[in-house]
Write a structure and sequence with these properties.
The protein is an alpha+beta fold and 102 residues long. Helix content is 25%, strand content 33%. It contains three helices and five strands; from the N terminus they run αβαβαβββ.
Length: 102
């Protein structure tokens, strides 16, 4: 997902629902700072609207869509001159994280 947001060394990244933290680690080697949070599902819808309001001019956000039949799509959201645009991106498939039985 890193190439989708086109990060550079002056960027500050807020990553939400970090999963294993791999993406945060990759971004930390590229950008100025990374702030990573885990999501509480009940707060996700509320946070989504607020994050779009807080997106700076020229800001980019990659939003995962609900998984369907094992694949998941991403939408690139950009804000330019106060206008928000959405671009559907290709589908991806994540390998589920499995914990060993106790």
């Amino acid at each position: 997902m890193t190439p989708l947001v086109n990060p550079d060394s002056t960027d500050h990244v807020l990553e939400i629902d970090i999963g294993s933290g791999y993406e945060s680690t990759v971004l930390a080697s590229i950008v100025n700072s990374v702030h990573a949070l885990a999501v509480i599902p009940e707060l996700d819808a509320l946070a989504t609207g607020r994050l779009l309001d807080q997106l700076t001019d020229g800001g980019r956000r990659v939003v995962p869509e609900d998984p369907t039949k094992g694949t998941q799509g991403f939408t690139l959201v950009t804000k330019n001159g106060g206008e928000i645009t959405r671009q559907a991106l290709s589908l991806v498939r994540f390998v589920p994280f499995l914990r060993p039985e106790n």
